[in-house]
Structures are given as structure tokens and as C-alpha cells.
Amino acid sequence: MPRTADHDERRRQVAEALLRAIARKGLAKTTFADVADELGASVGLVQRYFRSKDDLLRFGVEHLYKRGEERIAAVERTLPVRDLLFRVARTLLPLDEERRRELTVWLEFLPATVHDPEMAELHRSAAHELIDGLAEGLAAAQRHGELSAGLDPRAEALALAAFVDGLTIHRLATADLFDDATAERSLRQYFTRLFSDPEGLDPTHSPTEES
Q: What's CA 44's distance to the chain center, in Å?
């Protein structure tokens, strides 16, 4: 493997170790030593790729958002658009152990966006990309006659993203109220209301299931 590929793979491994450490100990208590322990390597090796904890944390956030983008990109592009958008939104919820770990870390990172301009820009960029994609999908649903023409796709994209974020927080923080089944059912109900069209669309249609 070329040296550049080795370097990139090692950085990816360090980022994965960081996510595991933060999910286990929390952001404030996670140290270079914790990441090294998760990686099964020396602190010196971790510091070879990241000079400071801030550098490491920013790369960890980038890696986390990239994983989310890869899941969305892997969603099969099929009609109806409503079902496609449901599957995209579902990938954003913590419905398996891997996503629960990643989104637990995301909640740990989020407060840093208030004071760290670079973290804030990472979050802003990812949020804009998600909103733009959802708005484009909702506009496509309108063109296919699946969504009321009277709705504003961008406003609905913002509302959907906020709803999914709220579900994520409740699934992680109040799991006694929001288990996996409840979170998914809530998302389905949201889509049923969103796509209920007074002009004659079927409000009883339920998006197809996909893991």
C-alpha cells in the first residue's frame, strides 16, 4: 500500500479509536492516552498524526460526519421519493449500536461549536449539506405529485432535520420513552403527516421498511 494510503488509514484508525474512547468516557475526560489504549498503540504514535487534542477532535468530527454522508450515499435511489426520503432520514437516527456510539459522540462534540470557530464551521457545513439535500428531495416529491405544491421544500427540510435531531436526543437520553421501535414509529408518523395531501394523496401510505 502506498505511504499516503498508509497514512490516511492510520488517521482513520485513530479517529475510530477517538470515537470509541469518547463514547466510553465522555469528551472532557478523554486523553491521548485513552485514544492510544483504544488503538492498541503508543501515545507517541497518536501524536505523530495529531499535534494537539483539538486537531484530533476536529478530525474526529470530520470522520463522524463523513460516516453519515456515506450512509446517505448508500441509500438506494428509488421511487416513490417519499420512501427514499424516509430511508435517508432513518439513517440519521441511532437505531443500531454503531450509530448510537457515533451520535453519542456527536452530542459530546456539539457544545464545542459554540466557542470553537473551526468546530462551528464543520457543523455548519454538514448541516447546510443535509438541509440542501432534504430540500432538493422534497422539491422532487412535489414534481412527482407526492407532496402538496403549497409547501415550502426548504422550510420543511429545516423542520424535518430539527425533528430528527430531537428524536436522536430523546433516543439517547430518554431511552425508556424512546426505544428503537418508538423512534422509528415517530418518524413514520411525521412522514404520514407531511405527505398527507388535501388535494387527494393517500395519507395512509407508510414508507417501506429498510434497515
A: 31
